[in-house]
Task: structure prediction
Amino acid sequence: MQMIHREGLPAPLKLVLPMALHNISVPFANLLGLTLSSLLYGIYLVLFLVYIYLGINGTIARNAAGGTHSTISRRVVKAMKTPIFLASLALFFTATGTWILTIYRNFRGWIPSDGGPANPSVFFDANADISETIQNALDALSLLIGDAMIVSFVHFAMVLSGELRENSQIYRLWAVWPDWRILAPVLISFTGLIISLIITIVNTTRISVISQDVGITAISVFELLTTLYCTLFISFKIYNVASASASSAVGERTLTYFLAIFAESAAAYTAWILLYALLTPGTASSSSSPAGVVSHQIRRAGGYWARMALAVGYLDDDLLRRSFRGNNCVFYHLPPFVISIPQTHPEPHSPR
Result:
C-alpha cells in the first residue's frame, strides 16, 4: 500500500511530525480529506449565503443603489461592481467545483468499475485521471483568490468589507499603508505562491505518483508566509486604532472584538496550512473551503463595523488624527456658519 512519507517537508515539520502521521495510507488520507472538506464546505456555504444576502439586501447596498426602495436588480448590479463581491463569487465557484470533484474521485476510487476490483491505493496516488488535474487547478485558483483577498485587506487596512471602501469617511478611518516597503514582501510571497502552484499543476501531468510532488512544500511555505505576514500587519494596524479609541465603541462592540475575530480566523487558517503540509495529498482537496470560511469571517466583522459605524455616526476627527498620525493624511473642516430660521406670528384678531 502506498504511504505518505515525510520527504519534501520542511525540517521543523519533520521534527514535530507525530509518529501517527508517518505512515498514513493514501486511501485513509483521502477519506479524511473528504470528511473535512464536506464539513468545512457546509460551514462555508452557510457563511457565503449569509454574505450574499447581506451584500444585496443590506443597508449599505440599498443606500448605494439609490434608496431603500430600489429594485433587487439594481442592488445586484451594484454589488457586482464591488471587487470583493466578485472575488467571493469566484471563490465560491472554485470551492464548489473542488468539493464536487472530491466526491466524484472518492466514488471512482472506492467503487469497482469495468468489472475489476477497486484499487483506491493506486487510483488516489496516480495522475492518470483528468479529474485530478482539474481538481488541482481549481484548488490552486481558490488559494490564489483567498490570498489575494487577504493581501487586499492589508492594502486597504484590513477588516473592512468591500462596500466600506466606497465610503470616503470609513476609508479615512481605515487608512491604507502608503509604503511599498510594507507591501513588497507579501507581494513577493504571493508571486512565489503563484509560481509554485503552476509548477505543481504541471507536475501532475508529468509524474505518475502524486506523493512525489515536492512542489507542495513550497506551496505550504508561501501560504504560511503570506498568512502570517498579513496577520501581523493587520493586527498591528487594528491594535493602534483600538488603542487610540479605547473609550469608544460601535454599538456594543469595540475594535478589540474585531481584532479577536481576525486573529482567530488567521490562527485557524494557519493551523490548516500546517495540516495541509502534514497530510498532503489527503487534505489537498479541502483547501478551498477553509480559505472561504476565513475570508467570510473577516468580512463578517467588517460588515458589522460598517453598519454600526454608519448608524451611530462614529467618526471623530480627534480619533482620526490619533489613528492617522504619520500617515500623511489631511483633514478639511467646513467654516462655521449660521442658520437663520425666521418665525412669523399671526396677528390676533381684533374684536368687532
Summary: The radius of gyration is 26 Å. The domain at 11-17+25-112+124-323 is CATH 1.20.1070 (Rhopdopsin 7-helix transmembrane proteins).
